[in-house]
Amino acid sequence: MKKGLFILTTSIVISLLLVFSVIAAGSSTAARSDTTNTDSDPTTNFETNKRVNAARQLNKAEKSIAREACEDSDNRRARIKCRLDYIKEHKEEFEAPYSRAPEACRKLDEGKKGKCVSFYKKSQACYEKEGKLKNQCFKRLANFARANLKDEADERNSKARDYVILLLYDIQEKIEHAIENDRVNSDDGADTIDKIVEIKQDILDGKKKNEIKPKMQELRSLLKDLKSTIDEDAE
Amino acid sequence: MQNKKRSTITWIVAVILILLAGYFLIFGSNDIDDSNNYSGSQQEEESIIEIDESDYIEVEKTDDILNEIDDSLNYFE
After folding, report:
1. Residue A153's closest chain B neighbor by CA?
2. What is the number of alpha carbons within 13 Å of residue A23 lying toward its C-beta?
3. pLDDT, tens digit (0-9, with 9 covering 90-100), for B16-58
4. Can you tell me the distance from the alpha carbon of A220 to that of A226, in angstroms, rounded to the nearest whole number?
């Protein structure tokens, strides 16, 4: 009887250890996928990793101060320009301070702002995809039930608005990437992204298409000289 | 001897059941996480899964994106 109890206890402990080790492995993968830092080297030893991490922490703190400084200006275009200069200088994506909402969400009331920030965060996964998969990701996020907007049975207005916001973010990403690779200067980039943000704000504010279409024309003009450069990655 | 054999089988079954419970706990929770990524209704989620990937379009070039935006603007109210 005692032997049986021992086997049972041992079996349960081993099983639980197995289960939790799988859970732990899964959660560590999730954490890795959240970070944009891909320069970790699994072959380096623990001490080296500690030193590298310490240097990286210091660097991160300095970078964090530089990013926060971009919030000092009351002018939206100046803030955008500051972030683009950061991207150009540090050759990395601008990781916004945690306390700050994306520009397009800032003027919304608290309830809408929360949804806007959440939508922005969810959308980040789509920009890691390409081609049809990216388009599918956008449409899923915009709650499409079909592959085309014209086939949607209901809520076309809100679905179209969400979809356009995602497409505008896509252009913004392309510009930022071109700036990171020194193919576009930060002044041209700031003018264009400022216009993109303005259009996104209008869409989120529920403005009608007649108000948005002229701004889209302005965006087309701004992109006229940039598009061949920012499309280099898509070729 | 018979009792001992029966007892061993019982423990083996118990271990398998615990492992199975753990497996479903892990993969079951992943499914919930995935479904939370998108805010669509369950019906929409199911119907969208049936859509073939080839039905989607490739919108990578800036001109294509701008045209897609213009088309979508027509659905704004």
Report:
1. B44
2. 15
3. 888 887 777 766 544 434 444 444 444 445 455 567 878 899 9
4. 10
Map out the domains of chain A as residue ranges.
102-234
Is the CB of B40 less than 8 angstroms away from the CB of A157? no
pTM of the model: 0.67
Please give the Cα distance from A172 to A190 (Å, whole number): 10
Pull the structure tokens for residue B26. 């892990």
Give this complex's ipTM. Answer: 0.73
Interface with B, mutate which of A21, A231, A232, A235 (most B CBs under 10 A): A231
Q: Please state, in angstroms and rounded to a whole number, the distance separating the CA atoms of residues B76 and A161.
A: 7
Amino acid letter for position A19: V
- Contact between residue B75 and residue A164 where contact means Cβ atoms under 8 Å apart: no
Are the CB atoms for B44 and A143 separated by under 8 Å? yes
CA A105 to chain CA centroid, nearest Å: 14
Instruction: In whole angstroms, give the CA distance from residue A166 to residue A124.
Output: 10
* pLDDT averaged over every residue in chain A: 81
Residues A127 and A219: beta-carbon distance below 8 Å: no
The minimum CA-CA distance between B64 and chain A, rounded to whole Å, is 10
User: What is the C-alpha separation between A77 and A89, in angstroms, rounded?
Assistant: 18
The C-alpha of B56 sits at a distance from chain A's nearest C-alpha, in angstroms, of 5
Kindly report, residue by residue over A120-176, the tens digit of the pLDDT: 999 999 999 999 999 999 999 999 999 999 999 999 999 999 999 999 999 999 999
Give the helix ranges, DSSP H, for A35-73: 46-69
Give me the phi and psi of A45, to 5 degrees please: -80, 175
Cβ distance of B62 and A227 shorter than 8 Å: yes
Is A135's CB within 8 Å of B59's CB? Answer: yes
CB-CB under 8 Å, A149 with B71: yes
